[in-house]
């Protein structure tokens, strides 16, 4: 018993070191980058190596004047049909990252997205912070969403995911890979999700045109009336400037195949 006073502080110190090491290993990050108006891919600092290590994307670094439109859909405000109309008219592909609530409440729109050639991405079923889940919890979130989409559309497999609120860490990136998913972040976005603070189509138009760059993965929200009203004008102007619109499948394929095979 004479050793107890010595053992207690040693054990306390050991547990503290273990806790700190564990906390560091599972530290979470919120996606972000340094915006610029130079029409260049924004710098993401230390995130670049992390994304490279796990095959994640936030932009196309080839230098080609290509844009990848992506939309996050958690709920519906009545503008998605208008957005789909523009995409169809302009022959522009997009990826829609959806939640379980969206799939359950708007199956007709999910079906239309798929029928018109767009990709459904996984934004999780319940929109949780993925970094606080176990691997099994993450698997359940992704599989539930995938099954819900497959039940109402012809897309029976999802392969791209966007973590809720852009929160991630190396653990979630690794687990996503294990589960067959590729993380897709973004290199162009603005505050468009507040439905009570829409500023008119010109605001959305200017935000995108000021930040646009070759290889941009653009994040938009379909709840924005500004986005719906500006989209046709944006697509028209960007095509005039020599940009083309591709899907995430094109981006991944480009990075898998030799340049000569892909045709660039």
UniProtKB/TrEMBL annotation:
It comes from the Bacteria. Gene3D superfamilies: Glycoside hydrolase/deacetylase. One of its GO terms (molecular function) is hydrolase activity, acting on carbon-nitrogen (but not peptide) bonds. GO terms for biological process: carbohydrate metabolic process. Residues 65-246 form the NodB homology domain. One of its GO terms (cellular component) is membrane. InterPro entries: Glyco_hydro/deAcase_b/a-brl, NODB_dom, Polysacc_deacetylase_ArnD, Spore_PdaA. It holds the Pfam family Polysacc_deac_1. This is Delta-lactam-biosynthetic de-N-acetylase. The lineage of its organism: Bacteria, Bacillati, Bacillota, Bacilli, Bacillales.
């Amino acid at each position: 018993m004479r050793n107890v006073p010595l053992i207690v502080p040693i054990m306390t110190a050991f547990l503290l070191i273990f806790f700190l090491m564990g906390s560091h290993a599972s530290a979470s990050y919120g996606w972000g980058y340094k915006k610029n108006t130079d029409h260049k891919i924004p710098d993401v600092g230390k995130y670049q190596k992390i994304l490279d290590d796990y095959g994640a994307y936030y932009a196309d670094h080839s230098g080609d004047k290509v844009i990848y439109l992506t939309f996050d859909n958690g709920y519906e405000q009545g503008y998605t049909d208008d957005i789909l109309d523009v995409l169809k008219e302009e022959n522009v592909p997009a990826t829609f990252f959806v939640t379980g609530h969206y799939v359950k409440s708007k199956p007709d729109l999910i079906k239309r997205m798929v029928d018109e050639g767009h990709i459904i991405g996984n934004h999780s079923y319940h929109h949780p912070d993925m970094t606080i889940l176990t691997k099994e919890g993450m698997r359940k979130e992704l599989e539930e969403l995938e099954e819900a989409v497959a039940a109402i559309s012809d897309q029976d497999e999802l392969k791209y995911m966007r973590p809720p609120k852009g929160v991630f860490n190396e653990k979630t990136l690794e687990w996503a890979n294990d589960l067959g998913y590729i993380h897709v972040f973004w290199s162009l976005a603005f505050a468009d999700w507040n439905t009570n603070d829409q500023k008119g189509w010109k605001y959305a138009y200017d935000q995108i045109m000021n930040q646009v760059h070759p290889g941009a993965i653009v994040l938009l929200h379909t709840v924005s009336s500004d986005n719906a009203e500006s989209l046709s004008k944006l697509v028209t102007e960007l095509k005039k400037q020599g940009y083309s619109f591709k899907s995430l499948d094109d981006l991944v394929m480009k990075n898998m195949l030799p340049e000569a095979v892909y045709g660039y």
